[in-house]
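Table S5 (text form). Sequence records supplied for joint modeling of the two-component complex.
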Amino acid sequence: MLLEVKNLNAGYGQTRVLHGMDFAIEKGSITALLGANGAGKTTTLRALCAMVKTQGEVHFDGQRIDTRSTEDIVRLGVAHVPDGRGTFLNLSTEENLRLGAYTRRDRKAVDADLERVFGYFPRLRERRGQQAGTLSGGEQQMLAVSRALMLSPKLMLLDEPSFGLAPMLVKELFSILRDIREREGVSMMLVEQNAAMALDLADHAYLIETGRVVLSGTADTLKRDDSVRKAYLGY
Amino acid sequence: MEAFLHQVMAGLATGGIYASLALALVMIYQATHLVNFAQGELAMFSTYIAWSLINAGMPYWPAFLLTVGISFLLGVLIERIIIRPVENAPVLGVVTVFIALLVILNSVTGWIYTYTIKSFPSPFPKEMSLGKYMSPHELGAIGITLLVLAALYVFFRFTPLGLAMRAAAQNPVSSRLVGIRVGWMLALGWGLAAAVGAVAGMMVAPIVYLDPNMMGGILLYAFAAALVGGIDSPMGAVVGGFVVGVLENVLGAFVIGNELKLSVALVLIIGVLLVKPSGFFGKVHVSRV
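The corresponding structure-token record, covering 524 residues in total, follows.
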């Protein structure tokens, strides 16, 4: 297991959002985290990289990380594509990408990775010198995924990458994510409202309700589950 | 005409010093959205350090470099020890801390060195053949200022650390997510601002003489410069510095007289805030409702 989470609690101020979550991510797999609005999907991702106060145990790649700072967790190879995309609006596209590799010391490999990322997202190459704030929503989403890739991460946490994208773009993005997993062997945890697309891409899935895991299994199992179908897939 | 040119040149020289200090203000402002009122006193304190070193027998340039280094460390320490604990305090609280810092630095300097005015050496030769419109020190001060500005530009534009500092200033959350230690970037910003201020202090001291209150007026000009350029624009601060320097000198010499010079800064501050609050290079903030 690449990531193991035991009895994870988290919240904002007095409000508890996660109530004892247990889940795990296999190395090289894509794991989807499904749930309604307010179920705690975003909070789960934030808890993993210490952006909110947590209790419980998180083990990543053999090390306990729940006591570490966000900056140190990044250094272990966890890249977070945050909700809202987290673009550095006043910096250029290329500067945004280079910041993704900020903690890496292998300069030459970073240059090569920049080219590789442009290979996945040719649009970003065209926008290389452009101020990132002027990119369209879709381009900024690609930029967010690319910035995470520049870390050369072991695990990518993707918070609603389809949010605000046209259906065509969502399809394109998801097929690129599949490519990335196959070629780079990056594990991913995918938070999505678009359950159908997420289950198509994922190997495993967890369904959460009000901060608890209520159902888990392979993506196929969840796809066939009656309650998931009715509530999240809509047929 | 000759007298006019002379005033313009002298204005450029002091303008460079205002530009440096304005840049220090802008650097802190960009990271914290606060104006560091103690920036001038910090520069004054640094200049006294240089004075001590030179008086102890150290040659000028080693003393200059050592002062810049000490000031950098002092800036970092002040951020870590004094500013960090009030990081999330309300704006007024932090401003109070800045003003306290101003008063403390001023009094401590007065206590250590007394309030007697001292002369501060210039590293540049006394006589120079091309100095018709400009004294060698003025010319040298402009040169040093431009050198500092160029170095800062290269640092922020082309080094990974400079990029990280810019990133941390504009989006701390995303910065943490790519592994930037945002707290240390702030401390580094304070260090750099203090170092730039130290250079400004050492360049202006031979002109205004060294005393604990020497930076009061200069901070006001620097503040005017930063506002004219736009408080969130480093480029604006530099241009603003030169503009304020020239305006102050020319108006002081020919229009309002030397006694009212300082009011030029105040008029500029009020004028810019009334007419164009974002300054000439600053970003206009538009928010959606």
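Note: Chain B has eleven helices and no strands.
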